[in-house]
Amino acid sequence: MKFTLEKCKTKAAYSAKLPQRVKLDLAAISKKFNVVLDTKILLVIKEQEVEVIVHGYGELMFKECSDVKLMEKIAKKVYSIGLPQDKIFKKK
Q1: Domain segments of the chain: what residues?
Q2: How does pLDDT run across 13-66, given as a tens digit for each residue?
């Protein structure tokens, strides 16, 4: 699955994005993670002490984390659960 992970323009957080906007299954994600906040358009989850804002359109925002490998691992897990199977991207 392909996604980018980079610092936000404000440099306050990291953001993971898919190559295209895809609707994530927030209900499926909420069943597999510790949910801090649940709304119709986004979730705030906590995974390995990192809070992640999961937007329904596919962007993930990592709050107060600088461990790139951990963020990549969490993003892969979120996307593998929340993406429709036909939308999971293969690494080249």
Answers
A1: 4-84
A2: 999 999 988 999 999 999 999 999 999 999 999 999 999 999 999 999 999 899
Distance between CA atoms of residues 66 and 52, nearest Å = 13
Q: Is 35 exposed, middle or buried (0-12, 13-18, 19+ CB in 10 A)?
A: middle
- The CA-based diameter of the chain, rounded to the nearest angstrom, is 35
The CATH class given to the 4-84 domain equals alpha beta
pTM reported for the whole predicted model: 0.88
d(Cα 53, Cα 37) in Å, to the nearest integer?
Answer: 9
